[in-house]
Amino acid sequence: ESNEKILQIKNQICADEIVFTVSDNGMGITPEKLEELLNHPSENYGAQNVHHRLQLLYGRKYGLSYESTLCHGTTVMITLPRLLP
């Protein structure tokens, strides 16, 4: 088993949105901590501030979202509208 730390950054361009995905293979986040991260802005001000600003600029379907599996890693998705020139 490898102890190599991996950080992946990807993007996916769809017809009307762009999704940036940042993933790691770290310890992950417990379901309780993930719930706090998503719903308690006073404790996670930076991430919540970015999320709410993106929603104010582009609408409620945009912003940050998280997925995490304990002992397997965490993924953060940043969803933005695809703005054409």
Features:
85 residues, alpha+beta, four-stranded antiparallel beta sheet, 4 strands, 36% strand
Quickly describe the structure.
This protein is α+β, with helices and mostly antiparallel strands and 85 residues long. The protein has helices at 31-39, 45-58, and strands spanning 7-13, 17-24, 63-69, 73-81. The longest helix is centred in the middle third of the chain and has 14 residues, at 45-58.
Folded structure, characterized:
The protein is an alpha+beta fold. 27% of the residues lie in helices and 36% in strands. The chain is built from two helices and four strands, in the order ββααββ. Strand 3 and strand 4 form a beta hairpin. The protein is flat and about 45 Å long. The model has no long low-confidence stretch (mean pLDDT 88).
What series of H and E elements makes up the topology? Answer: EEHHEE
Strand order of the largest sheet: 1-2-4-3
Helical content stands at 25-40%
Strand content: 35-45%
Main beta-sheet annotation:
4 strands, antiparallel
Number of strands: 4
Category from helices, strands and their pairing: alpha+beta
Instruction: Look at the structure and give the mean pLDDT.
Output: 88
User: N-to-C terminal Cα separation, in Å?
Assistant: 47 Å
* Count of helix runs: 2
Radius of gyration: 14 Å
- Shape from CA axes? flat
Poorly predicted runs? none
